[in-house]
Amino acid sequence: MSLELRLLATPKAVPELRHHLQRYDYDVRLCATELVTNVIEHVGEGTPVTVRVLDTGDGRTRVEVTDPDPRALPLLLRATATDEHGRGMALLDALAQRWGVEQGADRKTVWCELDGLNSLAGRGC
């Protein structure tokens, strides 16, 4: 099972994305929305993105978010208790089995892979 959505990275798009990902578990939805939020914060609101959720075939679910800025790379920060930002990639790092960035000349894809045993909500799908 796979899903691909093209959208503009805006605050309004985040809950809409969660709605489109209802068949997936909370961790998949959280990672996808965190990656889109990173685009809003670090590339710019209104940036066109493509969100993909894929079954890797080895029991994992892969979440990918592609945007047109190959230079704005995600950073794994350790936010303090009083920081208002900087937790998104740390959260993704804690939930995902692995994550990374694939850069092209005119785009980048930030991806993560999660344990597929829990990737579908209700596990009976």
Going by CATH, the architecture would be 2-Layer Sandwich
Question: How large is the radius of gyration?
Answer: 14 Å
CA-based shape = globular
Structural class: alpha+beta
Strand count, sense and barrel status of the largest sheet are: 5 strands, antiparallel
Distance between the termini: 10 Å
CATH class: Alpha Beta
The SSE string, one letter per element, is EHHEEHEE
Number of helices: 3
pLDDT < 50 stretches: none
The CATH superfamily bears the name Histidine kinase-like ATPase, C-terminal domain
SS strand fraction: 25-35%
Number of extended strands: 5
- Fill in the CATH topology: Heat Shock Protein 90
Q: Indicate the mean pLDDT.
A: 86
Strand order of the largest sheet: 1-2-3-5-4
Number of domains: 1
Residue share in helix = 25-40%
Salient structural properties:
3 helices, Heat Shock Protein 90, 31% strand, alpha+beta
How is this structure best described in words?
- With 125 residues, this protein is α+β, with helices and mostly antiparallel strands.
- The chain has one domain (2-118): Histidine kinase-like ATPase, C-terminal domain (Heat Shock Protein 90), CATH 3.30.565.
- Helix content is 26%, strand content 31%.
- It has helices spanning 13-20, 26-42, 88-95; strands at residues 2-9, 47-55, 60-67, 98-103, 108-115.
- The chain has a five-stranded antiparallel β-sheet, with helices on one face.
- Helix 1 (13-20) runs antiparallel to helix 2 (26-42) and helix 2 (26-42) packs antiparallel against helix 3 (88-95).
- The termini are close together.
- 30% of the residues are buried.
